[in-house]
Each structure stands twice: as C-alpha cells, then as structure tokens.
Structure to design on (889 residues):
C-alpha cells in the first residue's frame, strides 16, 4: 500500500481524473473505504464479492492514457529547489525560466511568457490560474515545499476533464494529508541568493477522528543582477501561513478543510516609455500582493470503485504593480461522482459552478472598463472508460461542456486508447480538443500603453505611442491535439516513457495595428496607434518528450528528461504581429547517490537551448541564449530528527540570462548561489 | 452484487412512492417545483445509494468481514472465555494491512462476546488471542509462529500463499477477483477448535 500512496492520491487528482478508474479505484483502495458493512454478509455472499487489490491500484499511473509525470515529496527534498517552478524543472516537457527574483515563466509545450496562459495549475484541485490576466502568479501562489506530497503534471490538453485553459497541460500540486505529518518541523535556509527562508509546521491529533496541521513560512530573496553586473534590486519578501484539517467521522466519509493566507512585498523592474526624451527609462516598482483561500471537501466512498466528491472554495487575491492594479474574489463549487457500469465500464461525471468578481483600478499605463465585473462559469463533464478487452485494451471517451460570459458555450471532447500487450509495456494514443477563453484584459475595453518611439521621419517627427486594445469580438483560442505514447518497464531497474505530439492551433491571438491618430493639440502632440487583439493566428507545435529512470544499484538512481519542440505559427495576412517562439531543446540529467544510509548526494545537470520569442514585432525579437546549468546537493542526517544540507545552484557560470519578459522587458540575470539548510523535527 | 447495498436506495424509493399525489396544474411554477424535487430526489438517492452501482470492494474490507464470520462459525473450548462477556480477541500480527477496514468490526459481538481487535507484535501476548491473523509482511516467521500456537485454542488465519498447507488453519486465497478460503481441519482439531459444518462445506479442504 505504501507505494500506492505515492502514485495515487485520495485528493482530487490529475492522474485520477484521467484514469477514470482512478477516481474510483485509486482513491478507492487508498481511502481504505469500507463501502457498506460487509460484516453483515454471509460467507456465501462474501465469496461472491469482487475485490480489487492494492497491486491493481499501484498500476493506475502506468495505465493512464496521457503524458503524465509525477514529482514526489522525496524528489522535491533532494532537488535542492526552494520554489515550486524550480521543482518543475525535473519534469520533461515543462519549460521553466526565471524572469527576475520572483517572477517565472512556466509553460508546457511552448507559449512561454510571464503570462503563460495555456497551462492550468491547481493546488489540491483549486485553480490558481488567475483570470485577471490569464496565467499564474508564481511569485506568491502555492504552498511551501515541505507541505507538498506530490506534483502531478499532465502534458497535453486536459480540457475534457478540467475545462477551459487546460490547453497545453495541467499541473496539480497536492499537499500532504495530515496523517502523513506528525509533530513539528522547523526548517531554516540561509544563503547568498536565498537570503533567509524560515518554515515552521506543527501537526497533531484532534480527537479520535481528526487531525490538523498548521504551517507558516517567511522568505526573503536577494535580487538578481543586470546584464552589466549591477544589482537589479528586485529583492522580495513573502510571508505565508495556512492550515489543513482532515476529519474521518465514518469509514466511508472524509472531510478536509484547508486555508492559506499570504502577503508579499516584491520589487520588480519595468521598462517605462515616455513621450519625451529619454523615450525609454527604467523603473523599480514596488509590488504589493496579498491573497488567501479557504476550501472544503467532502468525499464519500461507496465502494472501491464508486465515489462521490463535493468541493467548495473561496479565493481572494489582490495585486498592485506598475502594469496593473486589481483584486479578485472567486467562489467555486465542484461535484464529481464515479461508478462502474456493468463489468467493463467506469463512468465519471460531474458539474461545477464558479463566480469571479473583480475590480480594476487605472495605473500609469493601463485602464480597464468596466472597472468591476462579475462573471459566471457553468460546467459539466462526463467520461466513460470502456474495457474492450479486459486488461489489454481500453477506450476512454469524455467531453466537457462549459458556459462563460465572454465566449459562451465551449465544448472540449477527448478520445483515448490504451493498449497493454504485456504487463510491462503500454502504448497509448489520444485525440482531444481544448480552448483558452479570453480574459478580462483581452476582451473588455482595455488599454495598455505598450511602447513609445522617438520622433523620426517615419512619424512625421512626432513621438509615437503604441497601445494594446482589448476587443469585444474576441473568441477562444482553440487546440486540436494528437498524441501517442509508450511507457515501459524494460528491466526491473530501467523504465522509459516517451511521448510524441502534434498540436494544431486555430484562432490564436494576434495583434493588428489599427488606425494612427494625432493626439493632444496643440501641445504636446504625438501620434498614437492601437494594437488590436484578434483571433488571426494559427499553426502547429510538434515535438517529443522522453523520461528515463535507471537504478543500476540500490544506491544509485539516474534520471533523464529530454524534450524537443518545433513551432510553426503564422498569422493572417492583415495581422501585424503574432507571438512566435522558435525550436527548443532541453535536457535534464539527475544523478542521485545514497552514499550512506544517512548521506545523500545529488548532482543535477541541465541544458536549455536558446529560444527566440517574438511577442509584438515592434518590440523586436527577444532572444535568450543557451545555457547549461549544474546544481549539487549534499544532505546529511546525523540523527533521525535532524537534516543538514548544502546546495549549490547555477554552478557553471557567474550569471546567465534565462528569459526576457514580454511585459515591459527589463532583462536581469540569474547568479550562482550557495545555501545551507537545517531541518529539525520535534 | 451484494444485496444490502440496494436496501438504502429502495427505502428511499418507497418514501417517494408514499408521497401524496400532486394535483395536475398547468402553472409554470408547478413544473419548476416538480423538476427541482425530482432533481433533489435523484441527488439524494445518488448520495445514499451510489454504492448500488459499485461492483468491487477493497480486498481487505472483504477479508475483515471474513474474520468476523470465522469468529461466528468456530467454537472455542468453553474454558477459553472466563466470563460470558469476555472479549473475543482478534489479533493482527505484523504490519496491519486492513487500514480502517477493521473499524467495521468495532462494536460487533459474537454471541455474548464483544469483538476486540488488537495489533500485536509476533513475540508477545499471542496466547490471549482467539483469532490470530498473520499479515503477509510476516511471511518469513509464519511457520514458526504457527507451530508455537499449534496446541493452543487459537484460530490461525492468513493470506500468505499456501498458509493452510503449511500448518495454518485457514488460508485466505484470491481467485478470479474473489476471496475464497482453505481449511486445514487436522490443525484445527489439534487445537481443540470446532469448525461448523457451514464453514467446512464452503471451504477448500487441504491436508
């Protein structure tokens, strides 16, 4: 059973969703549910009851007809990472780049950016994808690393289960069940870049049937450096605190209530454009971000294969920086039920409702109208898993239907097949459709001043201003995806996972240069032109991803992740600009050595090939160069309750550039860093 | 399909049948009300009886139910129970594979004896148990344990392969997704335990 725990969780699970069976099976056996009182059955009846064994549950990950990768708590501990985006670098196909001290570009299968809008990210089934600008505020969202049980990553569309915005992938971060944490934990990290991170946690029993956990974390990170080696001064401070309560009043029912609050002071650099010389300057802006959430979940396990789940949450966030100033309230309700239909079918169905209520204020460069809006999202889905040939060939079909206030009805179907010619070899194929719905900042009456140009003959010797304009006609971006994969346990010590995909995009957002007008007579006079968003782009992305895991001896483990992406995006003839990104390779090789029972050594080498990204052609091609990277971690446990570790990151150079943000780019570089950590259990 | 699962659902159905018939009216409110009620009914039925569709059970939930049945169908020598309300002790040796499934046994009685489940280590206090379940984790020590208990009035049960053939009394066996059991009658007699004809009829007898 121990092993099953790490693969399949009883919380709303990404792996789970895909694996229909999972919603049932996995969670089933794991929750140790006793459906009905079996003791009332006679022996004759007991002999007829079909059982599902733990061994079968362990296979659910293997049996998923999708590109899935799971990062465990142990992987996180040994990665030497101090943030969630850094941890995600372990997975193939996930592109992670640091923009500045706090901000990250995290995406799957392309479309990298500060606002990577085609990736859905959840914490215990709660979406942290913010509809304010379509993307994830990685600098503040997510639980402290010590709270995480595992991170499930699905590459490719998940719209048929998770709905809009699960276009290129889904990441679900699952926190530890309170039964897996005992007593207190104090962790202190100090170093050159990770100046000070202090975490504390305490877990205990609450009566016979309930357990709770409290945690808090404070982190202060040093700023990065500019290209000429000066301090970029983008240091940050974040405080977080939260709790989780699990209550199991009866064998078939379990309740979870959890909540988190955060507050952050971030310093961020922006390029600022003016209509007088100098036309472009640089601004260090202080960002004030705060937020919190509370969520409750009820799970009822009828039998090993039949399960019901009801979840509700409330989420609040406010964010104020140079570019935007907004707050958001979200309430969300989800219901899910899974059950077997006959001997060969497993059905999962559910519905959801979400209300987002936001409020924007004007900033120096942006203005949104109406200032406040409430939006409703209704959704329903059904999925059927059909065992065509038991334990050999399985078909999975599903569809999600949604209604949102901007693009109306959206339907996202998916068809998958899994073929298991042999216990150790699995082949899968999938065809699916997914959409990304427009956000407030794209669809409403929005104006964002993008950049200014100095007077020249081209502009009749007047300064020029380009601004981004939202468009009420905007529709969803669409993806049709085709994937095939192989998963194999080639020997007892070597496993391989390979996926190839072809993503066909339609109605991608492009910018179209609108009519030029003269503003501000008599003085100052300048030219301005809107860049109007339109659904004028299309194209494809294709590539493959590889993950290999080799344990030559008990003490050694080698893991390889490689991904290749080829991008072919084009725009309609009349459109002026489109987001494009180039071919991309990235490779990661991690060697883990248990030198002694209480001494871990991990060496992690990565190589990320150069990437050319073009957001708006007027601002030119933003190119980051290739970089190799090396990090090393030494962990020593002199006692059972004490761990000391030293980590070196970015060891191969003094500094390197990882990414240039599309949002008022001011490139800063990541420095070499060393830090030490002490973890004490009490 | 195990019969009791239907019970909850059908009780609900009856409740609905007993509801007074509503007069036919063309008003829209009526139809709304009726739709809402129907939906509420199905939701409630689903919540309570969702298990009616559930075909499979956790293997250890079923094994726990077997343990309870064994307690009912085995007769211990009268001297074993000091009082009429003395507990019937079911002991789990080794890592507990049942999880919360054993909680289904809490509060149950066998005759006048309340069932008590005890996790025990293989060394101690086994003599005070009535049923000893040896978990698969103890495979290496099972034979030694069984021979130590051989002449005591203790029913030994396990899901270790070939348990009944290698000196145990009842072995739980999985076949075709169902749990069956083997009985080694000779070892049970040696321990002075009487197994009911009901049990013997359903078991696979082994030497």
């Amino acid at each position: 059973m121990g092993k099953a725990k790490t693969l399949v969780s009883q919380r709303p699970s990404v792996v789970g969703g895909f694996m229909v069976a999972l919603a049932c099976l996995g969670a089933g056996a794991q929750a140790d549910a006793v459906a009905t009182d079996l003791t009332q059955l006679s022996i004759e009846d007991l002999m007829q009851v079909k059982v599902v064994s733990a061994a079968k549950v362990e296979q659910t990950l293997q049996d998923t007809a999708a590109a899935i990768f799971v990062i465990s708590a142990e992987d996180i501990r040994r990665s030497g990472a101090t943030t969630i985006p850094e941890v995600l670098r372990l997975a193939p196909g996930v592109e992670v780049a640091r923009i500045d001290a706090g901000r990250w570009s995290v995406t799957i299968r392309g479309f990298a950016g500060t606002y990577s809008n085609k990736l859905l990210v959840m914490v215990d089934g709660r979406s942290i994808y913010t509809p304010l600008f379509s993307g994830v505020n990685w600098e503040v969202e997510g639980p402290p690393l010590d709270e995480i049980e595992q991170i499930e990553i699905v590459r490719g569309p998940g719209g048929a289960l998770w709905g809009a915005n699960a276009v290129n992938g889904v990441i679900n971060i699952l926190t530890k069940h309170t039964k897996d944490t005992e007593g207190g934990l104090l962790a202190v990290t100090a170093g050159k870049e990770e100046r000070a991170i202090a975490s504390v946690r305490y877990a205990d029993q609450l009566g016979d049937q309930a357990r709770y956990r409290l945690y808090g974390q404070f982190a202060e990170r040093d700023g990065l450096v500019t290209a000429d080696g000066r301090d970029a001064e983008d240091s940050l401070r974040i405080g977080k605190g939260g709790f989780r309560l699990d209550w199991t009043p009866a064998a078939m029912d379990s309740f979870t209530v959890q909540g988190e609050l955060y507050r952050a002071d971030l310093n961020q650099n922006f390029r600022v454009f003016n209509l007088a010389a100098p036309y472009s300057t640089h601004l260090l802006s202080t960002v004030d971000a705060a937020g919190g959430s509370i969520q409750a979940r009820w799970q009822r396990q009828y039998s090993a294969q039949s399960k019901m789940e009801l979840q509700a949450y409330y989420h609040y966030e406010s964010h104020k920086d140079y570019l935007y100033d907004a707050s958001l309230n979200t309430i969300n309700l989800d219901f899910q039920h899974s059950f077997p239909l006959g001997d060969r079918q497993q059905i999962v169905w559910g519905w959801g409702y979400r209300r987002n209520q936001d409020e924007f204020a004007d900033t120096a460069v942006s203005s949104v109208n109406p200032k406040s809006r409430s939006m409703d999202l209704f959704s329903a889905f059904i999925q059927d898993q059909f065992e065509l040939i038991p334990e050999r060939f399985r078909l999975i079909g599903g569809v999600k239907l949604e209604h949102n206030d901007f693009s109306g009805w959206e339907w996202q179907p998916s068809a998958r097949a899994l073929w298991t010619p042999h216990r150790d070899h699995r082949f899968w194929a999938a065809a699916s459709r997914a959409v990304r719905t427009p956000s407030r900042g794209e669809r409403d009456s929005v104006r964002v001043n993008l950049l200014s140009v100095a007077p020249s003959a081209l502009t009749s010797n007047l300064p020029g201003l380009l601004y981004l304009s939202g468009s009420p006609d905007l529709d969803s971006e669409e993806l049709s995806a085709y994937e095939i994969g192989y998963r194999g346990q080639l020997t007892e010590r070597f496993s391989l996972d390979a996926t190839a995909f072809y993503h066909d995009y339609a109605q991608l957002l492009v910018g179209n240069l609108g009519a030029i007008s003269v503003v501000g007579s008599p003085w100052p006079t300048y030219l301005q032109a809107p860049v109007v968003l339109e659904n004028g782009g299309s194209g494809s992305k294709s590539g493959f991803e590889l993950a290999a895991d080799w344990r030559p001896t008990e003490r050694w483990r080698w893991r390889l992740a490689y991904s290749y992406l080829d991008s072919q995006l084009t725009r309609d003839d009349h459109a002026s600009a489109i987001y494009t990104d180039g071919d991309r390779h990235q490779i990661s090789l991690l060697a883990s050595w248990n030198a002694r029972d209480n001494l871990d050594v991990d060496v992690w080498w990565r190589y990320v090939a150069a990437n050319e990204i073009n957001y708006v052609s007027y601002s030119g091609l933003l190119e980051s160069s290739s970089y190799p990277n090396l990090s090393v971690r030494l962990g020593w446990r002199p006692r059972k309750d004490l761990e000391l570790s030293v980590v070196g990151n970015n060891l191969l150079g003094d500094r390197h550039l990882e990414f240039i943000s599309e949002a008022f780019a001011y490139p800063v570089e990541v420095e070499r860093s060393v830090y030490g950590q002490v973890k004490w259990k009490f | 399909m195990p019969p009791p699962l239907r019970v909850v659902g059908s009780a609900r159905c009856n409740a609905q049948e007993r509801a007074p018939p509503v007069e036919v009216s063309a008003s829209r409110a009526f139809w709304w009300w009726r739709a809402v009620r129907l939906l509420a009914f199905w939701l409630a039925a689903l919540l309570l009886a969702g298990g009616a569709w559930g075909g499979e059970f956790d293997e250890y939930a079923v094994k726990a139910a077997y343990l309870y049945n064994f307690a009912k169908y085995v007769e211990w020598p009268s001297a074993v129970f000091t009082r009429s309300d003395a507990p019937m002790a079911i002991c789990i040796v080794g890592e507990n594979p049942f999880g919360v499934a054993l909680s289904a046994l809490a509060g149950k009685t066998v005759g006048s004896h309340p069932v008590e489940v005890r996790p025990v280590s293989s060394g101690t206090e086994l003599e005070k148990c009535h049923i000893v379940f040896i978990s698969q984790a103890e495979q290496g020590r099972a034979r030694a344990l069984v021979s130590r208990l051989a002449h005591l009035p203790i029913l030994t049960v396990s899901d270790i392969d070939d348990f009944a053939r290698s000196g145990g009394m009842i072995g739980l066996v999985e076949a075709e997704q169902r749990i069956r059991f083997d009985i080694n009658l000779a070892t049970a007699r040696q321990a002075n335990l009487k197994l009911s004809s009901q049990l013997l009829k359903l078991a696979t007898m082994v030497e």
In short: Chain B touches chain A through 42 residues (CB under 8 Å). Residues 1-25, 49-54 of chain B have pLDDT under 50 and may be disordered. The two ends of chain B are 33 Å apart (CA to CA).
